[in-house]
Prior knowledge:
Elements: E1 7-13, H1 17-28, E2 32-38, H2 42-51, E3 56-58, H3 61-65, E4 70-73, H4 80-87, E5 96-99, H5 105-111, E6 120-121, E7 124-126, E8 147-150, H6 158-170, E9 174-177, H7 180-219, H8 225-230, H9 234-242, H10 247-256, H11 258-280, H12 284-303
Parallel strand pairs: 1-2, 1-4, 2-3, 4-5, 5-6, 8-9
Antiparallel strand pairs: 7-8
Amino acid sequence: MSGTALYDRVALVGIGLIGSSIARALRRDKLARHVACWSRRPETRETTRRLDFCDSVHDALADAVRDADLVILCAPLGANAELAAAMAPHLKKGATISDVGSVKQAVIRDVGPHVPEGVHFVPGHPVAGTEHSGPDSGFAELFERRWCILTPPPGTDQDAVARLTRLWQAMGSKVEIMDAKHHDRVLAITSHLPHLIAYTIVGTVTDLEDHLKREAADAGTIIDRAEIVKFSAGGFRDFTRIAASDPIMWRDIFLNNRESVLEMLGRLSEDLAALQRAIRWGEGDKLEAWFRRTRVIRRGIIDAGQAGTFAATEPEKP
Ligand code: NAP
């Protein structure tokens, strides 16, 4: 890690898993001379003060962003427009606004109109995370060896992009510059759809459990919740971890990446129907060929160093 300050003052707006992880990484490697934090609720600000991973915690958003060279929005996507409008009058000329949102066209739509003249706007998405939320769940190593995708709109100041790139690299990330629309399609299939499937499967099992309970009551036998948990092999267990991710954040992701998610969902439904047919007609060769192909993809992910763990649980990548 560099140890050289890349910005004088960085303001983090929203101090949850991602905001607090950035603060911790900035402090550990002295990447900013001052890290200012703001969060909406007094409880979160109090926890942030107690955890002591930044230089100042502000009750007023204006005080946090004033004089900042870099402001990073780290709240759920649905909060961005209001936050950008509220902080705009307090930003200094030459500052950069960025964010960490998991959908990029929506951020450009919501934040773009509020960016004042003379302020740069470089949207970003660290493809790193866990299913945990809040300032106590963050850790400085979260971004190491993970991708951070920057989606600067056409005409963005190249020095601002280069400086932010250096910051993410100093926090351990590999940086890729991408068009926002392309980002949203890629993430729809690699992250958003898998989360939708996890939420669906865990919901289906819960419904099934209720149904089994009713049947058992009718038959005079008892099936309790522990049984489903007890016999959860790796597959279902992994789904429950993903399905424990923050409901507000995921609500906002699906609402804001609607087109791409629906497109990928359509493709998935077709493939599911094909597999369903192969099972019904006993077409083992088709199933085996499909599973062999997907195994190769998993090996590719391992070879690319994207299957590792840093936290107690394997990081997810919204
Ligand atoms: P988090 O741990 O739940 O923290 C969310 C933060 O946003 C909290 O500080 C919360 O403040 C604040 N907030 C919530 N609603 C708000 C509102 N309406 N107005 C203002 N502030 C609000 O979330 P996170 O996991 O850090 O995620 C934050 C962003 O990172 C999201 O946009 C998400 O798409 C993106 N992201 C997440 C991950 C991940 O794995 N979690 C990975 C990559 C990117 P209070 O506590 O004060 O209410």
